[in-house]
Amino acid sequence: MSFLLVQALSGLATAATLFLVSSGLTIVFGVTRIVNFAHGSFYMVGAYAGWSLIERFGGTPAGFWGSVAAAALAMGVLGAAMEIGLLRRLYRSPELFQLLGTFGVVLVVQDLTAWAWGPEDLLGRRASGLKGSIDILDQPFPLYDLVLIGLGPLVLGLLWLLFNRTRWGTLVRAATQDREMTSALGVDPARLFTGVLFLGCALAGLGGALQVPREAVTLQMDVAIVVEAFVVVVVGGMGSLTGAFLASLLIGQLQAFGILVFPQITLVIVFLFMAVVLVLRPHGLLGRAEEMPPTAPATVTVPLSRGRHAGVWALALLAVMAAAPLVAGDYALILLTEVVILALFAASLHLLIGLGGLVSFGHAAWFGLGAYGSALLVKHMDAPMPLALAGAPVLAGLGALVAGWFCVRRSGLYFAMLTLAFAQIVWSIAFQWYAVTGGDNGILGVWPSAWAAGKAAYYWLTLALCGGALWLLRRAAFAPFGYALRAGRDSGLRAESVGIDVRRFQWMAFVLAGAAAGLAGGLYAFAKGSVFPTLLAVPQSVDALVMVLMGGIQTVAGPLAGAAVFHLLESEVMSMTDWWRLVLGLIIVALVLVFPKGIVGFLSGLRSSFGRRRA
Amino acid sequence: MSEALLTVDGLQAWYGRAHILDGIALTVGRGEVVALMGRNGAGKTTTLKAIMGLVERRAATLRLDGCDLSALPTHRIARLGVGYVPEDRRIFADLTVEENLEVGRQPPRPGAPVWTPEKLFALFPNLAEMRGRRGTRMSGGEQQMLTLARTLMGNPSLLLLDEPSEGLAPLIVRQMADAVRRLKAEGLSVLLSEQSLSFASAVADRACVIETGRLRWTGTMTELMADDGVRAAYLAV
Ligand SMILES: Nc1ncnc2c1ncn2[C@@H]1O[C@H](COP(=O)(O)OP(=O)(O)OP(=O)(O)O)[C@@H](O)[C@H]1O
Ligand SMILES: [Mg+2]
């Protein structure tokens, strides 16, 4: 009994941190309508900065709390700087660009943090004056955690006062509802938004600094917390503070007790909880319908162009590529094999984004599921390569069938969040289920059959399978299926009114894209000889998005070119530096800043301003 | 005649690539009420939004009291003393009546009437009774009053009123007309868009008639009432 009570209390302490971080995320989202992926980075840097300050000044209670406050304020300043330097330019961009742009910041911050504090985990001092524990029903409970438990409601109360009893808070709430009208009343939205980013990121930094006495400060804590905070915000209702508080409490308890019942799959429980909440209450516990962000139509409303003589070009390209082993060495062939595989991966994502207008942030799930499907068949059932390869798209397609049923119920940002959640579920299974997947040791020894073991042979096999799959995807794009998808993308309501069951087509597209990504994953597993959980992780999903973005969303050939450029860049340029995250992050940020409306939007913007000047 | 408060000439506006306004020209003198008239889709709302900087626009002249507005962002235009009351009201539904007014509050401006919540509650007694109520729980007429009051909190010298009488019950329309006349008496200048001739003739001194984004006719309200031809060509449904 007393054990359960202490467990519940430690769940409350977890909830407090979770609330601090997610309240910042939800405030920023509510006003800017941007889901700030970099929010977790402020939490992480807040923890690192807090660690340094506490090491120096944390000997007294005043020093400890002063350090925490200073770290939080510093993160607020950095957040304001990010608003001015980056977000401000993204407010009118499609959500794909916003998510990617802020993810670019995540990468940059990871490398800068590693550079400043080194790669080792840091253990902080305990909070001065709160080092002991008290007995609760004969069970010891840390005093510090008790303080945290009180801090959650305290911050909620202060935020409530700020938003309801000050002019600044009133203006922020007004801007949340109607940005344009607020500026028509003489309020400078830019300054307001900078202030909001300051507040949101300071809260993240506060959460991070407060964690120092409780757990090690690591370079992985950014993505881990931001994904959890996403879940809290989505469950609570995007933009709702009280909702975030409630959701933090629920998820804190779910984690505290989940770890007792299913220690292996606590993450899965949390994500499943979110999926269930979203199906029962589409806008979260306390969210409202109008709180749902509009999907940015600017993503991809340009019609796909078939391209003249596309078939001829494709055959010519295929012929040239098939001839590559005649001249290329082993290393080049390995690289080419990977390019071809990634091209299929990118093209499958492009099917969702370009045709369906569905921005998936978790496409790596299907790639990785395919890879693991093949590897598991080889490892546990000794399956020959052809069978294992056939299993890849089947497993991925089945996974996408289940996840897709949930995901296509929502559009825009919620769709992105849901796909991210499913990818995290699959990732955490691969990561935590040691007995079957080997956890982060991965699965080794996934080699091709003897007849395909040569680099050239495997390359030809990859080319044939990916070429076939790409041809199928292209056929689908220009078949009635593809037109129905595009109709749903451009005007869901109108498409429904002429009798197109948009959701069903989107579901089919999700499964098709998942299966194609799965095939790519299976081929990748055999090309590498091993699989690891990173194949399913967020950065892998982002890689796919960057490939699609680089190539341009408007053409079917775009993702192919994007995959080639991206992979060559990654393996040639980034292998020359230890700071590849920094480089990649800067490339991503540059991409979204130079083409804030997408490459197509950029071109048509040029065209229309040119036309106007002539008129 | 001294320079008008608002001078607009050669105003063009676009929604994306659609060219909506082509060469609108008008002036609003100090203390004058000008009605912008035209059928549905003529471009009345777009004209007001273009002045406010809410749509993409370009103008040969766009001046308020000698200040060039054409390069300013919306909030700067508002702070110069232009109050905008949109046709779709757009009150902040989650905010109470008093909070809505607070959002509109700006420092007093020389040469323009100064408003306080108390003064506005005297002008719109209905609002006084629901200070703490949220916008979601207000009727259309009450919302219209609140939008106007909210804009007045910015102490504007020029009011842009988009279809103040649209969708209101006859009694409320009369209250609205009274309010506009009161504002004029306080020294405010008003540019209002209107489809209803009776409302316009009750409050306006002059009228500008537009159709498909171009200015077609301009003159005093009395002249418009006398000119059957213009009314038939551009206003009759
Ligand atoms: N957001 C928009 N995007 C594209 N075109 C628009 C948009 N809003 C208005 N238009 C077009 O601009 C033209 C002028 O519209 P506007 O709203 O200014 O007319 P109005 O005179 O105010 O009409 P009403 O009396 O119905 O309010 C119309 O042809 C309309 O179709
Ligand atoms: Mg209108």
Explain what you see.
The complex is a heterodimer of chains A (615) and B (237). By secondary structure, chain A is mainly α. Chain A folds into two domains: 223 residues, no CATH class; 245 residues, ABC transporter involved in vitamin B12 uptake, BtuC (Orthogonal Bundle), CATH 1.10.3470.10. Chain A contains 25 helices and four strands. In chain A, strands 1-2 form a two-stranded antiparallel sheet. In chain A, strand 1 and strand 2 form a beta hairpin. Chain A starts with a helix and ends with a helix. Chain B is α/β, with parallel strands linked by helices and 237 residues long. Chain B has a single domain, classed as Rossmann fold (3-Layer(aba) Sandwich). Chain B contains ten helices and eleven strands. In chain B, helix 3 packs parallel to helix 6. Chain B is globular and about 45 Å long. Chains A and B meet through helix 6, helix 7 and helix 25 of A and helix 2 and helix 3 of B. The complex binds adenosine-5'-triphosphate and magnesium ion. Adenosine-5'-triphosphate (ATP) binds next to strand 2 and helix 1 of chain B. Chain B: This is ABC transporter ATP-binding protein.
